[in-house]
## 1
Amino acid sequence: MTRMKKNKKPGRVGGAGARLVAVASAVAMFLAVAVGGSAIAATPTNSASPSEITKTAVPKTVATNDGVSLGVPQHTKIVNAPDKDGKYTVSLNVTGAVDSSTSTTSKPLDIVLVLDESGSMENSISYSDRTTKQQALVTAVDSFLDMTAKANEQLPANAEKHQVSLVKFASDKSDQIGNDTNWRGYNYSQIVSGFTTDFNGLRNTVGQLKPSGATRADYGLQKAQDVLRNKRADAKQVVLFFTDGVPTSQRDFDNQVASDAITAAREMKQAGTDIYSVGVVDGADPGNTTDKSVNSFLNAVSSNYPNATLTKDNWNRWNWNLGQGGNQGYYQSASSAEELKSVFDKIQQQITTTVLYQGVRIEDALSKDNWVTFTGANNAPEFTYSKTVNGKTTDYTPDNKATVDGNGKIVWYPEGQNGQLEAGTTYTVNFTVKTTQKAYDAAAANHKDDSAATGNNNFYTNDNDTAKVFYKTVTSVNGQPTVSDENNTPYNKPLITLPTSTIIVTKTWADGNEQHGSDAVTVHLKQDGKNYGDAVTLNAADEWRHDFTVPAGPDGHQYTVTEQSVDGYDSSVSVSVSTAPSSADNGVITLKGLDEQKGAAAITNTASSVMLPAADLKVTKQVKGHAAANDFGFTLACETTNDQNAGSCKNVSGLDSNGQLRATVSKDVLAKSNDSAEASFGTTNQNLKFKVPSGSANEVVYTFKITENGADNAPAGWQYDTAEHIVTVTVAKNADGKWAATVSGNNPKFVNRYVAVAALPLTGGTTGRAWIVAAGVLLALAGGAGYVAWRRRMTI
């Protein structure tokens, strides 16, 4: 059978040294993308959401001369919401990693080698190097597989291994796995081997490949798609596409073959696969994207241009569209056996250079402000530990337990001072803390009552000066370790949000709030006997209300509310709380509890008054000419005048509904002429209250009028005193600066006189005596008439 091996010509492209560097860079990039990814610590669960879960950014990396680097370990601090007893679970974790490139955390590689096995592979690689392309390829692949096996040996025991699949392409496509030819002896384009870590067996298989056939690049990349249907979900997929010529179905560049190959490559790239194209072909130039031939093709297939297409229009014209992208090093070329081997060696150099974390140490410290304490006996710490691998968390007891020094600093070496973290394993230490009264006090102090102000009631659980993860990296090149200096990076600072409490202060004027629209009062809140915050002003604009933000907490505080003295008014405060365990009694609000508490203080302003015993207001009665035949009654009546500083009777309490008081002098104490006696306008426990002046007035004068009852209807022989005596009560401050009531005109004397009948005057018309005589005559006549009538009845 005739081999199709003369469809391509060997040739050199540029200097070998320049291409070696370029190819090496491409390979380095290949692995850099292939090993990307990160491990995320499992988040502890709680009925309430964690207060904050934050991942620390990577501020720096540790790099080797081969481009391998390992960022700071993935580390997170988590604080869960408190339980019913106010205890918070704190978790600190760190995740181990191994790096074979420039990514933070290692991923295993699923590598598909797509190799050109067309007939031209039997040609010499160049005029100066008579090694055939097939021989050079076998040597390069052998080295690649050897170094991949060594790389797997250096991975941690629990790490997934790199695996390789082999695809050949030439002529017809076969769905069988193997190394077969068609009836004409040309190579099938087929999967030679699925993914395997048996690199010795794969090396033997590569040695048995024999070039023959066309260059059906489309079939090769389509078979790579078939292989990747069995990819690992947690692995990075990479295709290494090698060819020594343009895509053909016979001899010349075949646009349809190229189009189908580019389509298959685009679908893999869109699924996250990185594709590197390596060309050992005359005219290869990765910088050439416009030749519409081999260079356009190998750029379009590679990840240099993720969305490249080659399509045919209605006029059967082929249109190249590379789309967005550029020369990122995914297309490389080689023109000698040495260069080709260097490409694969550089790939493996990246793989076999590993970086691990060593001597990792977690440090944390309780807040320096004593906002939290441990929850064990005598405030001792209690630690638990877990490991998370592939999303599964297992509790365990480490050989190296966390310690706490006298200052509350926590130190933990997950794998000991010189141990290495297992790749992909998240180590977690957990402990519980409870917030102190100082934390509640600080939360309330940071809170701002002004809605336009900034501030909150959050606080940090750790001090970032001490909460850090310390680590070293150990870099192994071909099994030779090098340990770095110690590095560190801070933990995130989760926040705990503590509830604040409220005391609502309201103001009521007993004489009506509407009368005090222009007034204002100053109120002070005291905490445990000391002023808490600034005084506040209550006024009508704020509806006579202010809400104080205060702490409750496990120990709690006592609060009192006082009003700055308002001239002319007395204030009283009644207090209450909404729920236990807080309480209110005798003007004191005690707020205590882990949840939000609410208290209330209601201030009532009542007009100030002075008291005057009603019994102090007196009247004196004297009789002349005869002993008293009846009791004498007197009335004390309040009168509102228009005098300056006159007081209103409505501001006097203790009077009856008519604004009066009454007094009585008994006749028994006026047994003879000229006797006199006092009477009081009230009993011993009866008081009058007088409102004190308000505003700028210094005094107020209340006026009363005392009159004798029945003075205009005196009994026979008596002449009552009809005088109206005025008594005033002046309310003003005394020498001590206190309001006092002073009485003027008190205890007026009323004199009633009795005049005998014989002493009544006879002249001057009908006098009292005349009326008496007339009355006697009439009485006699009436008596005679009565006797006559009686005698007449007796004789009938």
## 2
Amino acid sequence: MLAGCILLLLNSCKSTKYLGEDEFLLTKASIKVNNKTSIDDAINDYLAQRPNNALLGVPLALYFHNIGNKGFDPRLDVWKKEDPKGLKIFTRIFSEKQAIGYRNFKYRFNQWWLNNGEAPVALNEVKTSQTKTNLAEHFIQQGYFDVEVASKTIIKNKKASILYEVKTNKPYFLGTITKDIPSEVIDSIYSLHVNKSFVVSGDQYRYSNMLQETKRLTNLFRNSGVYRFNKNTIGFEGDSIQKTIHTEIVIGNNDTNKPYKVQYIKRINIYTDFSYSDSHLKPFKDSITYNGYHFYAHEKIAYNPKLLLNAIFISPDSIYKDTDRELTRKHLRGLLNFSLVDIKYAELEDDSLEASIILKPLSKYNLGFSTELTHSNIRQLGISAKIIFSNRNAFKGSELFKFSIQGAFLDSKEASDNESLLNAFEVGADISLEIPRFLLPFNLGSVVPKAMSPKTELSLGTSLQKNIGLDKQKFNWTMSYRWYPSKKVTHNIELLNIQFIQNLNIGSYFNIYGSEYKDLKSIQQAYFPAVELNTQNTLAFIDQHINTAFKTSNPIEYQTAINIKNRHHIITEDFVIPTIAYSYSYNNSESYKDTDFSSFKARLSLAGNLSTVLSSTRNENGVKTIFKTPIAQYVRGDFEYKKFWDISFNSMLAFRSSLGIAIPYGNTKTIPFSKSYFVGGPNDLRAWKIYDLGPGSSKSGLEYNIGNLKFLTSLEYRFKILNSFKGAFFVDAGNIWDLSNSETAVHEDTFNGFSSLKNIAVGTGVGMRYDLSFILIRIDLGFKTYEPYLDSKNKWFQNYFTDRVINFGISYPF
């Protein structure tokens, strides 16, 4: 009914409402190339005028705009002139001041509709002509010099559609390629690398190849020591004969009239404490010469020259290279110690070069504060705050030391005895040190050179939770090494990652996991009505009454009770988790604004191997321990692939697929609860609440369902609705399974090969997003489409609308 009212409202807003008498609403603009409709966005981008954005053919943004009154004037005298009786009645009931306020409110209300919608796109002949010119230029640059472009406009009922028809005709090809290079230096370098040219005889003419060749030659010369070379001296001259273009590459002399030559760097100066205010006035009080580099400071040199040189790739007596200059700039900025990195060159009398590296340090000490609102299915509302103290160049090697304290107040559903809004909290503290090199007793420079930005990260942290689950105290200590072989690839090795997890509120287990207590209560009421059972004596009840005799007469109830006990042990057991891990990341996006790219992440981890070898103590169950705490031992692998397609001007398609598997062995039979997998929630399988689904085809009814195998895949179509409002249609599919053959697992929980893929749950839904540029607020409505746990043969669309899930989130789900 609501949707019907909205459609009725939108239909009442005539799309041509604000068009002039001689104006026509542009409803369609299409391009045909050689009688075939173009779906290529690269060609459609040449449209100088596009119709209003539409969702499923409906121009919502235009309708929103037309709801507003474009000519509304808030002044009272205008109201008096237009509707004197209405104004008189209003001022009798209210005051004149309130009448002014009402008119101003109505004006702002109208402006909101006008500003958040889209004004009608009226047919513009100038832009039509511009589009034809754009299309002609595009195909000429592809070698179609005889291209013909025409347009047809169809007008009906104040609406117009345009069809652009392109006839490319035959393309031109490159003939002979010659050169005109007066400089012997340039000519010799060119000849050595001519086989890599983008301008090749026999290829179809393309202007983009000329640009690529210009860029290639510029990079080639400037990275071969020719400091004076300028790309503006490169030109291409062509002579066409019967659709063949004979091309001459011309490389002239530079504007300074100085001959091209290979130039060497004679001296390198590094200024470590530049200041805009007085650097040109103050004398240098400190200087050091190290390995041919000259360091200067107005006060005292604060950086260890040997360590700072790890970020500098310009070296004395080497030829000039643009790549060395850019690598130096990139790595110095990556140290996060400088607000300015400037590199200048000056020519000396003997034609050698003097390089000056100018550095403006950031403040050594910094204190930061941040706050955040959080929301999830478990923690309905949260407010967090974080204070970070930073010390740059902590040990004179550009190290970054951080100390942070964070706290969060949360609305937790587990805090049943506390009715206040924010009834749970989490506090923590972390110390970290980032070192811009590998901290190792041996040199790995031949394997991981400094150009790969090797880093060592050390961290130590702790956190405490209250009224969140079983209340946990966590300690973690990590030592990791990270490096970047290329812009797209990252490697990370966690040589040491030790976590200690202690449950502080085990006595509340059956308050939190109420479904298990309910099952046990049913057994007690049916078979032991005289025995008192409460949440505090459950384990004692099982030990005393669920015995071999009870198993003989009630095997199903016996197994239920034993499973409850075993699950209690799995979830409440404390663990030390010593891990060694390797991570790989690939991402080919060019910038954060890129909408057409892919990424892949993989992480392999081994827990407990070395520790179990070194440990000699065991608990009463024969499990090896450290400080009386069991050592977790398992192998785990996590893989995730993402792909994004730019579909059209205001829409894109996003795909995500992930696989996780964790296998316990040796010292432990189960995976620690915190390292297990779950599904559901705002960033996962959105038709189910977090922890609600699985494992497999079981319908346990438990509060927290976990497994050690997980598969998840999602496909999402994202589109613009109007202004900052965006929408999405999505499909999620996935589930978790049990691989460990644990005592609590039933047949429906376990993964039994490809036959278990039939238990993959499917959810579909729609989403609304509001983009504030700095943050994106998201609401997704998920519908259970395929439920593998249903008893009926038909498991599709059984609870589609009746059991929907609303998810609130920040940013995109993936």
## 3
Amino acid sequence: MKSLFRAGFFRRIVVPALLAIIMFVVTVFAFVIPAFKKSAMQQKQSMLLELTNTAWSILQKYHKDQTAGILTIDEAQQKAIAEIEALRYGVEKKDYFWITDMEPAMIMHPYVHDLTGQSLSEFADPDGKKLFIEARELAKTKGEGFISYKWQFMDDSTNIVPKLSFIKVFEPWQWIIGTGVYIDDVEKEISSLTNKMIFILLGIFALISLIIFFITYQSLGIESRRREAEAQLHESREKYRSLVESSTEGIILLLNGKISYSNTFIQSWLQYNGDEMAELNLPEILEDGIAETIEHPGDEHRLDVKLLKKDGSRTEAIMTILPVHFAEKEGLLLTFRDISEHLTVQTALEINREMIEQIAEVKSLGIFRFTLDSKSRIMKYNDQLARMLGYDKPEELKSVSLSRILGGSAALKQILSRLPETGTINTSKVKLLTKDNHFIDVRLSLFVGIDNRQQRYCNGIAEIAGESAGINEDATSGRIPPVFAVNLLPLSAFCHQPVTCPIDATISDVLKLLADNNADCVIVLLNYRCSGIITRGDLIKRFYLHHTDTSMHALSIATSPVITISSGSSTTDAYTLMHRNNITQLPVLNPSGDPVGIVSLARLAGNYIDIAEFAAQLLKTGNSVTELSRFRKSIPGLIGPMLGQTDSVVTFTGILSGFNDTITNQIISNAIKEIGKPPVAFSFFSFGSAGRRELAFNSDQDNAIIYEDNSEIPDAELQQYFLTLSDRICRQLDQTGLISCKGGYMASNPAWCKPLSTWKKYFAGWIDNAEPENILNISVFFDFRHVNGDQQLFNELEQFVFDTLKGKTAFFYFLARNIAGFRPGGSKFGTMLSEASGKKSEMVDIKNSIAIVVMFVRIYALHNNIRLKGTVERARAIYKLNVFSRATYDEVLFQYNFLMTLRLKIQLQQLASGSEPDNLVEVKKLTEMEQFILKKIHAGINEFDERLSATFMSAYKG
């Protein structure tokens, strides 16, 4: 409302009124009052001139009497002096004349007789002005004139006021006669007039203000409605423009046969800009004279046309012609749909088929497809499969059944039964029967699909198995090492259907379910939720060994509460969870909390290898700093091919962080062996990207140490030991390639190597006394994760932190405000400044872009007591609490995955070229699609401010 008032009424009503008042003031004070003063002074001057001439005529009369011999000169002068001395005028008859000579000396003054005969050369008024000297000079040069000075008011010598006099020389006697009037009355009249004008001005101003207020009050509603209508119209126009601009069809508006408008799609398609399109005639972009046929199209209709691009090439399109009325003009709306891509699909598919056949030929891969009906017929296959099975003529394989190739119907059923819900079997080792009845070992992969008639089929890839082949391939091909391949699979690939029973089932019911389903466990359900789980191990330990009655409730021997995992988790998460809790069966839940599968440790065994375990195997030959450094340098080449092979970059960064944890633990172990056992329990923890398990190839150290408070050991002794330990750890981490933190956020810094009580004070101070200028810097400490040492000690600090965070609205307000104020080098894509380089170019610091997403998710995680560390798992937990909508959750995941993948991809390219990895992305080197996505992501990041304000800032402001 205020902006509305300022923008409209101030400009159109208040400003003209103010201008009128200003013009009135200027007129009065710059022209009227000065003119009044000038007029008054002119009246005074005219009066003095006439009075002085009258007195001067007396002198002239007596001079004539002298020249006539009637009087002597002395008599004539004395009579003249006596007559002029008696002259009076003015209101109180106290204004007079005075006479001086040219010396000057006073000849006559009616009130100050002491001056008679005295020299007036040094006589001056209170301002130091020698008025009689000035009168003499004026008499000599001009003969007469006006002088102004200060003089006593009439006969009151204590009152000095301004006075204006007129003097005139009487040449025969060399006298100067003068008289003056006081002009303080002029000043008083001017002051009185000024005061009256000011009162008048204030009255006018008050009246105008009332008028403006009345007009404003009456017109504000009208103006508000007008603005609202304008805003709605503008919004409608922008929505329509956005719709048109984002259209995947080209649009051209023709008015009077000229191109009046074209959207960005058609401009990009035909390689013209908007101005160039406006200058074109329709025949210049339509081939075969189509343009002339559409001037009078009648009703809407479609045509197949060929469009001419700026570079002279042609493209196929379907043109829709629609007559329109626009701004009282007749026009045509032309829309163009690109069909050139559809025309080349068949060609592309043919090329892809040839490429697949060439790859299969080179790699000796047998490719085939079979039906999933009762007959399991082989529908298609390549020549390589026929040769692999010993058939000289590929067509001979058409008459061979799939069950025969797999060694019988039982083998076929066994393989098909292993197809999980996802319909994928990856590199399962099986035996195939050749034409001459010999078995060969192959690695078989199966993938279920559905054709256009909704009929299910299965594609298969068979590859000759052999140790030497496998070794050579992994050593030379640059593919993902098999040890990590399983990490790329969804958890559902290892699930089997859960066997469940109701909560009132007996042990006898459970035994029957296990036997009938050949299952390893049974889940006990209460309201479709996991209430307990019974494994074969539970039966042995709690039933057979104790001879429990089979009629008892199954829940009496069940394990409760049940450890579960979400269906969206990775195999890494599942393996870690089972290993940490020493369990062999892990129920898998869908987003609603219903059990949809069971993952067994036995099924993962042989398929999954723990990253830490694999790293330990690589380091068996040596654990010195040199060996650790060599191992870290090999990591990019070892895991680099995995990047981009999964839907989420979390798996990749998790492996990278897992390797770093292994190196860190080895360094800590070596350091403790060298300096001795710790005097008290401690926890070495990481924070920042390492704490979130989101390391990149240029990440630096962010770590600290907590140690136990102990009153029996001097603080200095404890501090000395752990600083020595920390210094050794941080120095060796730097030597192995994890560089030191430039900001000093490391355990080797005494500030970050403290007992538990001090760390509690740190966090309590950061939370309770949140300071806006540093809260963003310390917020990375809230991404802390235990790496080595006493887990319970770390848990105690973590519990304290989350207890302290409860209800701290000021902390979240300042944190949200700082996040909202943080920008990745700039606020607009394409004009960002790289903070690292300081040069203005199209360079984006991708780390800063990622940081905003991380900070946005972190504040919601802290606010909702979510103790997970990674950005993705935090976002998933926030979504499950219904704090994030599905759209926000998907947006955050997409932004993080894209930005982090782009950062790691560029760093891998830098490492491959021998340069140091950094976080700078040169926009022009990205693909058009990557540039488009990056621009959209930055636009989406800017929208985080509104969500932060609504959640954390509005309520705090009250």
## 4
Amino acid sequence: MDNADVAAERVISPTLVGRDMELRRLLAAVRRPPAVVMIEGEAGIGKTRLVGELAAAVELRDRPPLVGGCAQIREPFPLGPVIEALRGAAGRLPAGGLSPVTGALHPLLPELAAVLPAAPGPLDDPAGLRHRVFRGLAELLAALGRVVLVLEDLHWADEQTIEFLGYLLTDPPPGLGLVLTFRGEEAGPGLRALTARLRPELAHAHLVLAPLDAARTNELTASILGTAQVSDEFAAYLCERTSGLPYAIQELVALLRARGVLVQRGTRWARKTLDELGVPAGVRDSVLERVRDLSANGQAVAEAAAVLQVAVPVRELVATCRVPEQDAHEGLDELLDRGLFVERGGTAGFRHALAVQAVYGSIPLSRRQDLHVRAAKAVAGQSPTPLGQIAHHHRHAGQHDAWVEAAEKAADQAVALANDAEAERLLEAVLRHAPLDPAREGRLAAKLGWAGGYALAADELIGLLRGAADRQPPGPVRGELNYLIGLKLEAGGASPELARRAMAEAVGDLADRPVLAAYAMVGLGMPRTPGVPLAEHLQWLDRALERLTEIAEPERRISVLGKVAMVLTLVGDPRGAGLTGQVVERTGGRPTNRWEVVAYESAGEVAGLAGHHDTARRLLDAALAEAAEHDVTGLIESRCRLNLATLAYCRGSWDGVEDELEALRVRFADLRSYRLTADTVAACLALARGRADAALLGDLVRANLEAGAADVLALPVNALLRLAVAQDRAGEAVARTAEAFSLWAAKGLWPVGVRAVPALVEALAGLGRADEAGELVSRLERELAGLDAPLAGAALDHAWGFLSADATRFTDAAVSYDRLGAPYEAAQAREHAAGRLLTAGDERGASVLEAALEAYGGLGAGWDLDRAVQLSRRWGLPAPARHRGGPRGYGSALSPREDAVARLAATGLTNKEIAKELFLSAKTVDKHLGSAMRKLGLRSRAGLAHRLDA
């Protein structure tokens, strides 16, 4: 790597990570002079950063440490680090009070000429002159009083510096705190002997800095990037790649940023980007210099290990070497003695992945390819066969056919082991770089498509699938590729037209693949694409049902039934309930495989949005109960949780929903359609809690329209219109939501869109457009007649209420909402009814309003409660204290989420581990744990288990 690569923007963590204990020990020692602290650690471990934190300590700000460092040069300047440190000490020395012997320092410290006494007479004895300089330096340090002297990189120190430190420590100045840093593997015996015989009164500490583990690597990387955390996968990979060296972590992140490939996809990162990185120059140069100092045998073994990359049994390492066996063993012993290699459990290899990469990059191409050929043969004898390693070696040996064959086998093995991300990386490399015929490319691209989108961005994955489809592979393969393209476009929230076009192209090639053909037809049956009439969508659904008899696998038939039921429920077709019943009946009410789980989840998702709340809950609960067992990726389980969170919002069961949505937004950071749903529900709930954001709701309306998410769209449309009416901005909101109502009308999606009709009618009535609103409601009554649309009766009564002088329609709506299990909407209808009744002087208005207030309070709907309280006070009625949003309290009892967090903490899990377990942020875990401990009267976690079991 060129230094220029990182010069543009070097990134450094603003906080010290993983060294709290070492910093405390360091500070404790220098606070009690005289003291000496040895800080040992390999290159990049953070020695300089640690002493930098020492310099920033509050107690040292008035007298900061004097710092000097050794340089890696052939003939070091004598006493270089000590002289460098003392050059800036002039302002801290007493004028005229220095010992005469300090005058010997004039040649070394001309910067101090103004305060040094006159130079003593010359000495012809080099030893005597050296002793005089040592005495002068010691006296100068003593004159400084309380002082911390930091000398860095003493493994490069010249002989005189080591000698002087030995002299100094025999009788150290009383105010001196001496801090010495060095690399242990490069330290000579003289340096290590410095602390062998110290005076009893001299405080002493020896700090050995260890590499950061994955958790600390996560913390450091997050600090560098200025975010709360990064994904555990990214942190673990960085930790492995850098062996936990903070400097290397910072260099790699700096390199990513400088090359413009530091792209955060939520908290997940593209691992392939890291595979393409070079080694930071400082790390590379250090490693290569040490390798150049080896014998020829040692260099041969180092090159073999670099090609192998991972630690392997000695037998395989020796077999890969280009020297005779005995010579290879001698070279291995040398590498172990020099500390470049480490032996673990019968294997040997480099200590750091960065060292591997540095050496690998220095091997000439022809020799490197030959070593890869030897490596492929050597590792093939392992059991089980390391297919990924074999594929890697064949690739870099230039053996393309062997590479493709091994990579496909390795990818198949990865998929079988549920490691789809590894399969994706293997197949992507082959598709991008191997010469392939169209049939083979198409087959491998299809495997890539099914592996998912773990390491690749959606557009990259779709590009590879399209490239393979365009090369005209066999028809069924092309159909499969186009189906996958449509699927990925839909999941990524792309234009519905693009996804539909891909699905349509797929159907024509899938005559002999009835399962995929039926799936593609269901995709075409989804009423999302503008300009396509509902009748055409329904025809595709009928064609999908016709293919059921050709599908041999019962679980796949159930999957198709569930998907068709989903769409029919969306449009209010009564057949949807029948098909949902068939899914439940054929599975005995419990899904037993992945396809059945998806069927339950698909049908349950739309059932909830269409108002079939009880049915949705049963389906989604059943799906969630089995999802983890049948989908190791966790995607289906997360979708079930998202649908249950959406259902909880619709049903007014809001406790814990904010936390759940927060976790799901992180989980779906790279899956735009699901993330959009989580964002939408979170924003609607935030409004109810009292956190109004009209701009965000408007953006979510637009985003759902663009994604063709007509079912979820009703939620932000309804919220935006209600907020606009409250803010006297109804005209703007009506204009912004007009496209949504047009979409529902064109596609016959009123069974879900009717949810937003009352808010629209209220807005239109307030704008003096009551006639227009009445025509809309009348038309909807006709269009929804005979459809399976449980929300219709309540919502249309609610809408008529705004156009009527009495309260009857509002109260009828409230009763209907109650039956549906929609308490939030019921409370709104009662609030409006109360306003009508109170205006008419009807005493029933007080009790109706009281019911609305109680419902809002129970929900934690602070925005609505404030408004209803104002109405109550306007009429001189008693009102509860205002609630400013958020769930209602649990008093001294733990909330369900607090209890879950506390019980996990009682088992010894850290906040980050609890966050991972519960899909929360570490900050949220900290908040819940703190609240739980306050309620339990505890100051530490130690008593949690006892108190929770009491």
